[in-house]
Design goal:
Elements: H1 2-18, E1 26-32, E2 38-44, E3 57-59, E4 63-70, E5 74-83, E6 91-96, E7 101-105, E8 115-123, E9 129-139, E10 146-155
Parallel strand pairs: 4-10
Antiparallel strand pairs: 1-2, 3-5, 5-8, 6-9, 7-8, 9-10
């Protein structure tokens, strides 16, 4: 019973972290002191480093609506990004706010005047009704991260 009492705070902290929505990925760190007491702390994961000289970029759209989709459907949308600056555009990472969304993006530098893509794939299996999700795009632009989003109306 004493062991359960010592582990309970860790389980409670883990449950709180896993229920957070629209937050960047966090890490749960558990430590045990000399008396055997277990404590837990949430440590925020740092943002992806931005590399290369700064440039500017324009999105074809920053938000998208899937409209009505059936629960369990897996849908995806491609956002187009154009390098409007004078230096190569480098996307270092795309971080969705939820594990239900998987990103893919142009990994090679996007030269000035050229276009790249950011794809968000959404699995609707765990949702009902209206859903709104976001992803952060980390790139070598002044106002990084760039936030892109989508909505869906999930039908049974």
């Amino acid at each position: 019973m004493k062991k359960l009492v010592k582990v309970f705070p860790l389980i409670a902290a883990l449950a709180l972290v896993s229920c957070k929505k629209d937050q960047s990925a966090d890490q749960l760190v558990a430590q045990q002191d000399s008396t055997g007491t277990t404590t837990a702390a949430v440590v925020e994961t740092p943002a992806a480093p931005v590399s290369g000289p700064l440039t500017t970029a324009a999105l074809s759209e920053s938000s998208y609506s899937f409209g009505k989709i059936k629960k369990g459907d897996q849908v995806e949308h491609v956002y187009e990004i154009t390098n409007t600056g004078e230096n190569p555009l480098i996307i270092s990472e795309v971080k969705p706010a939820c594990g239900c969304t998987a990103p893919d993006y142009t990994k090679d530098p996007i030269m000035p005047g050229q276009k790249g893509t950011i794809t968000l794939k959404f699995d609707s299996a765990s949702f009902d009704g209206m859903v709104s999700k976001q992803a952060e795009v980390f790139a070598n632009v002044e106002k990084s991260p760039i936030v892109i989003s989508f909505t869906a109306d999930i039908q049974p």
